[in-house]
Each structure stands twice: as structure tokens, then as C-alpha cells.
Amino acid sequence: MDIGTWMEQARRQVDQWIDQDLASMEVQPGSVEEAMQYSLTAGGKRLRPQLVLAAGEYVGIPWEPLRPVALAVEYVHTYSLIHDDLPAMDNDDFRRGRPTSHKMFGEAMAILAGDALLTEAFVKMAELSTTAFEAGAVLRATHCLAVAAGRQGLIRGQVRDLAAEHQEISVEALRDIHLKKTAALFEACVKMPALLVGRMGDADALGHFGQHFGLAFQMVDDILNVVGDPAVLGKATGTDAGLGKATYPRLVGLDQARVLVDEQSRLALAKLDQARLETLKGILTYAQRRSW
Amino acid sequence: MDIGTWMEQARRQVDQWIDQDLASMEVQPGSVEEAMQYSLTAGGKRLRPQLVLAAGEYVGIPWEPLRPVALAVEYVHTYSLIHDDLPAMDNDDFRRGRPTSHKMFGEAMAILAGDALLTEAFVKMAELSTTAFEAGAVLRATHCLAVAAGRQGLIRGQVRDLAAEHQEISVEALRDIHLKKTAALFEACVKMPALLVGRMGDADALGHFGQHFGLAFQMVDDILNVVGDPAVLGKATGTDAGLGKATYPRLVGLDQARVLVDEQSRLALAKLDQARLETLKGILTYAQRRSW
Description:
The structure is a homodimer. With about 290 residues, chain A is mainly alpha-helical. Chain A contains 15 helices and two strands. Chain A has one domain: Farnesyl Diphosphate Synthase (Orthogonal Bundle).
């Protein structure tokens, strides 16, 4: 199957799972679920759940048993966007062409919607089938997600990102921010399926993929913030420069940033088994070319 | 052992566990762990971990294997305080006699410290010993905590509490807010030990205790906000009235609120086994008498 078709099918499957989960919540006006729904149905690409499903294929798990993991990573991602957009953080008014959560529902509700999505991710992980997977393996996957989302992962990245605004930082410090802020969750996405079936060698190789995929992805994001078309991206460009954010284009220039994207993309595939990497490689190529 | 001595020993044990966990984080200045540490060592009574340990005694689990659960519930509680104190929520400048997290570290760091504590709670749950407990039972306890903390528990309570400010609401609506905002986490504290050892009948009876304990506790809190001594409480009183909060003293008067505390305290014990309830009853009596 061609990767575009695969990604479209995976995106539709994830959208359907999210719609079904929201339907089960019986969303009421004025409820936190309404704010969760607003951000969950804002036209996300579902890249993280797609990586869960692709890594699942790599280790031989069909899509359906991975549903809770796919939902959990999208919920963690969506929570992080809502909180990052808050006035006290990046203060973004628009995301994917629509008002951000706090512009729509107010700051209190946006904070709570993020909290609820983060918590719901762990509800989902604890609901993973213990007939499909060994319960101890589910705990290891849950631990992997919590560590990636927490103080040593996503949150540390955001803290350092905020601290680096209007500062001169080194390429090494920037790489560290990206490793935590962006790559940690991608790493968890592709490691968790391997952990669920106890394939520790695959978990290592997939984790390596996720890390370099994440670095490449963030570099592309930074490049798009300079050269992208706001109409296509659904968000303003030039915002990193406005906030004085440290980015690869600012530190090494646009051309060198593109060279680094290719380098990270090569590194991502280095440890994967050639016979099984087609879908993961396809998603990587898609992510790599967004900015070309 | 007299209940005061038991509670003091339990509090010291929990304080020691928290100190050890913070030491393992190697807290750096300017890190999110510094803000986590600030709120975790702000002189909390450790009532929720105490209830975990007391419920553990009720079902025959020693303290040590429950360490991750005791930490997890205190982390969830501390996260909820940090986020509730934010300017967009209750806008409190002081808690336990010290500046609140956002006054100390700024709003961005306070939001992130709350996020990190919530996430760390699930790191801890996933680290529960699968030699002491069956892995499937750990997943059921983790699910219990996530549901209690999430959109159907703590967060729904906070949403409805904020919506009820400056509104006339019924006693039934207020009870529903307290059930979610306060009682849900107490319920999880006492249910989890029973779930960990697969004693479902005890889980039901303990859940019933936790729910009514939580209602009694919140009523006492509301009463103290009217009649308490700010120096003893370590926080301002009269703040509920200032925010136009719905409370039992406002809806039914102080005397009737005290009658309701006693009623909830009786209900809390109704389903417990007489031979094993001493410690739980002692903690309940302590909570009930805080305002007398």
C-alpha cells in the first residue's frame, strides 16, 4: 500500500476512535468534555497515533488492540498544546486556524481541559486489554508514557524552552530542548507497542527511531515557522522570531537546518530491521518533506 | 496505639518517602522539580496518604508496598491545589501560610509543576511492585485513581465549583460538587489498597467510607472558612464568601452544617467491619473535630 493511503486510513481510524470515545462521554454544554472535544476535533493530523499503529505493525500487533494507546498519545499531545498555548506560556490565540482553547472557553476551562486530557490518557492505558497483552507489559508501557510526558520529558522541554526565550543558547542546548519537548513523546509512541509484546530489542531500535524522528520533526516545524504558508499551516508564521525562541534556523541558518533534517532522518532508520520498516520510513519521509 | 500517635507516625513516614523521592530527582534551581518540591514540602497534613495506609491496614497490607500509592495520591492532591490556586481559578496568594506556587515561581511554572505532579503520580502507580501485587490488580488501582482525578471526578468538581460562583444552587447540587471535587480522591485513596489485593467487597465498603468521609471533610473545611482562626489554618478565612462560593454554611447555616458533618461521619462507618475499623474511625474523628 502507498504511504499516503496508509496514513489516510490510519487517520480515519483514529478520528473514528476519538469520535466514539467522545460519544461515550455524553458531552454536555459548559462541561470540561466540551472543551476536550473542541481541541480533539480541531483537525489534528494524528501523527502520534499513526506512529503507534506503524510501530504496532513493526512488532506484529493489529490496530484494534492498540486503540487505547493511540488515544492516550493523542490526548497527551492535545493537553500539551492547550497548556502551551495559554497566556502564561506561548500566548497563542490561534491553532490550526481556530481560536485556541483559552480564547474559546476561558483560561480556567483551558487549564482544566488539559488536565482532564492528561488524566484521561492514563484511564485509557489502564483499560488496555489484559487478554491481548500481559498486565505487567501494560504497566511497562504506562510507565514509558508517564516518564515521556512528565518532568524528565515533555515538561522539562517546555520549562527549558520558556527559559531559553530571548537567550543565546548553544546548538547542544537546543537539541536537548527538542529531545525533551518533542522527541520524548514520539519515542514513547513507537516504543510502547514493542513493550506491550515484550520485544525489548525492537523497543530499543524503535526508541532510537522515535528520538531522531522527533528531532527531524521539530527542525521541520521550526523551518516552517520561517518559510511556511500560514494558510496551509493553519497558524501564524514568524511567531518563534517574535518570541525570541531559539530554533535551528536562527542558530545555524535555513540551509544548514535542512541538512540536519536529512541527517536525523537517516539516523532514525539506522537500527530498524530493513524487512519491516516500510510504513515507519514512509511516515518519516512525509514528515521530512512537509517543508520542501 | 492512640490515633494521634498513629497519624504522627504515618505523617513522618510519608514525609520521609516524599523527601527520598525528591532526593532521587536531584532538584536543580529553575527546574520544575524545584516548584514540585516547594509545594510538596509546604507542611501538608498528608491526610490522603494516611488514608491509603489505614485502608492498607484494613485489608492487611503493610506500609512499605503502598509507598507508590501514598506518593501518588499526595502528588495528585498537590497538583490540584497548585492549579486551583491559579489566578484564572481561585486566585489565592497564600496557602499554608506561604506564597502559592504561581506567586513564587510565576504562572507558567506553576501550571507545569501541577502537570508534572499529576504525571508523576502515574509514574509511581506504574512502579508498584508486581511481586507484592498482581499486575492486573495494579492496573485496576491505576484506573481507579485516574477516574477519580479526571473529568468524572476532581476536574468535574472544580468545573462545577467555578460555575457555581455567585450562583444560587441547591443543597443537592452542592453535594454533587463536593462528591466530585473532594470525595472522589478520598474514595480512591481507601479503595486502591483493597483493589490491589483483589478484595472487592472491602473495596465497596471502603469506597462508601471514602465518599462520606470526603463529604464530611469538605463540610468541615467550609465551616472553618467561616469560623476558623487564620493563624491556625495557615490561610485566610472568609474567602468563600468573598468569591460568592456555594458552601453548606451559606446554604443551611452553621449549626445545620455541623449536624450534617455528624450525619456523614456516621454514614462513613456504616459498611465497615467493626473488628478492623479502628484506625479509619480515628482519622474520621480527627477530621470531624478539626472545626470544634
